[in-house]
Amino acid sequence: MALNGKTAVVTGAAMGIGKAITEILLKNGAKVALLDVNKAAGESLMEVLRKQYGPDQMLFLLCNVESDEQFKAAFQKTLETFGGIDILCNNAGILNETTWENMVSINLMGAIRGTYLGLEHMSKLSGGRGGVILNTASMAGKSSAKKAEPLPMSSDGAKGNVFLAPKAAALFPVTTVKTFTLKQLEVLHQPPDQ
Ligand SMILES: NC(=O)c1ccc[n+]([C@@H]2O[C@H](COP(=O)([O-])OP(=O)(O)OC[C@H]3O[C@@H](n4cnc5c(N)ncnc54)[C@H](O)[C@@H]3O)[C@@H](O)[C@H]2O)c1
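# nicotinamide-adenine-dinucleotide complex -> structure
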């Protein structure tokens, strides 16, 4: 997918991989809605990005991916601001096995919630113009599926291998749901054949 002129929603965009994804998107001419729970980090990143890419190319939205209400409001605001959504990056995540309920709630359920919202907005079957959904995954999700540990389970499940992609593909065949690992992030610029 050519990124120039496209609009992307990136969760967990204030730091780390989400920030890197955001910068790649902006560099390639996309507009980006940065969603994150960390207001301070999000706003200070915005200051830097505005100077580099111009004030109208991005917006920061305070959004916890655990909240349906906040997630929906963020999509709505993105639509109102940029006129459409073409790319969703389900990237928000935490790594803390001691608070495994939070990890599953954010890493897995946040990505499922985001995917259904993305499909609702982008699927041609529901009046959208099609699009791409990317999930940031861990190699742990690919290699340790036999272990009943929260990280592999939340990574594998959240990244669509087990549940999300087949189900979403069956429901919304015109929208792409893809699973990528960290090593495959370059596909953002040049996705492989489906
Ligand atoms: N860094 C790695 O080595 C690694 C390995 C495997 C998987 N991952 C996955 O990659 C993704 C990004 O990881 P990272 O290393 O960049 O982490 P990070 O901690 O640097 O960044 C995560 C971002 O997500 C945000 N976030 C956390 N909870 C949120 C929530 N409920 N709602 C919205 N935003 C939230 C944080 O504020 C932060 O900005 C995560 O899904 C993580 O599970 C990372």
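# post-check
Residues 157-176, 180-194 have pLDDT under 50 and may be disordered.
The chain has one domain: 7-137+160-187.
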